[in-house]
Specification:
alpha+beta, four-stranded antiparallel beta sheet
Length: 111
């Protein structure tokens, strides 16, 4: 489960413990227990944005400026929610490439 975060100067649901930057949170969870658990995880990940491994910046610039999701996904991309929700995909067909090459050849041989 993830939470979508957006920087906010006005309405703030959470603040980073390190720099004080405020964020709006957009939840998928409905139960208070899930939200409590995710809040602790998100606070830890916001602190990690300031870690030495991430550059050690202690200002709000350490956080993304656009919408972002926490916790970050570290598993296989094929199991990301957006990929699972997108439905099946089919591999590109080589036939369409052959047709396009054939059309290209005919157009240039007639000129």
């Amino acid at each position: 489960m993830q939470v979508l975060l957006k920087r906010s100067e006005f309405r703030q649901d959470m603040h980073c413990d390190v720099c004080g930057q405020g964020f709006r949170l957009y939840w998928e969870q409905n139960s208070p227990a899930e939200r409590t658990t995710m809040r602790a995880i998100v606070l830890g990940e916001l602190r990690d944005h300031h870690s030495l491994e991430q550059g050690g910046d202690k200002t709000s610039a350490a956080h993304p400026f656009d919408l972002f999701r926490l916790p970050g996904w570290t598993g296989s991309p094929k199991f990301e929610r957006k990929n699972l929700m997108a439905g099946p995909s089919r591999p590109p067909s080589d036939i369409s490439k052959v047709v396009m090459i054939s059309r290209y050849s005919k157009q240039h041989s007639q000129g």
